[in-house]
Fold this sequence. Notes:
Elements: E1 9-13, E2 17-24, E3 36-44, H1 46-56, E4 60-64, E5 66-68, H2 71-82, E6 85-86, E7 91-93, E8 100-106, E9 109-115, H3 124-128, E10 139-143, H4 148-160, E11 164-168, H5 177-182, E12 185-189, H6 193-197, H7 202-208, E13 213-217, E14 221-225, E15 230-234, H8 246-259, H9 264-278, H10 291-294
Parallel strand pairs: 1-4, 1-10, 2-8, 4-6, 5-7, 10-11, 11-12, 12-13
Antiparallel strand pairs: 2-3, 8-9, 13-14, 14-15
Helix pairs in contact: 1-8, 8-9
Amino acid sequence: MKITTEQPKIIVVGSxxxxxxxxxxxxxxxxxxxxxxxxxxxxxxxxxxQAVATSRLGASVYFIGAVGMDPKxxxxxxxxxxxxxxxxxxxxxxxxxxxxxxxxxxxxxxxxVVVPASNFCLKPQHVxxxxxxxxxxxxxxxxxxxxxxxxxYTSKIAKNNNKKxxxxxxxxxxxxxxxxxxxxxxxxxxxxxxIIFGDEPREQILRKYPNKLFVRDDTNxxxxxxxxxxxxxRNDHDSVLHKMGxxxxxxxxxxxxxxxxxxxxxxxxxxxxxxxxxxxxRGSQRGLPYLKDIE
Length: 295
């Protein structure tokens, strides 16, 4: 794994939110009320998570997204600025709340309900307004918590500018053939492959996208096909403590390693190392490592 002296420029087009985490002994069953042991609030949203992660790993990061004109939106913007993320292309939307995620954490399992709110106000024209920064970018990252037409438009800009495009395909939605073709790499959860790619056996799907599709699960393992053989890499604690944000952390680490022109195996290992770090702290962003923490 090598880190060059050049600072990669990464554009993240995606979501941001405030995450409210409710810690319970057991998850509520239908028609049941449970008492939370405590509630906690964190910065989140898959786009903002990846923006913060890549910034901490030494990239120069631009974030394109949408927040509401409310206190939560202002908190998100301040946090991103403090994390050295450029927010000049973040849209502030009137009369729509900032995105929120509600998380029930019980016995190591998270159940998450996302209210997209302002994130679904992001439009292709907002990306078009930032088009001048794309020619100098090294890589563009997107996730699926924003409208699909924004993702389609962003993928076309990436292709037209001959730029690498990384997709974290979560929450899972079916991806068009064009988006898949335009992507440099796609990260997906193992239990969501059929939603994204159709109902085929897992190995068959992996073989169709050598060195492009990277399948993840909660044990911090990554499976991919390198064109010759199936590859599997895993590193985890005896107990993975906090699973929120692992996919975002992996995607960010993989992206930064790729920008520094590492081979795929090293990109996967670096992504896994970054993902492992985030499990030590509650909240998707709090545990994200700095480059010095990995090196």
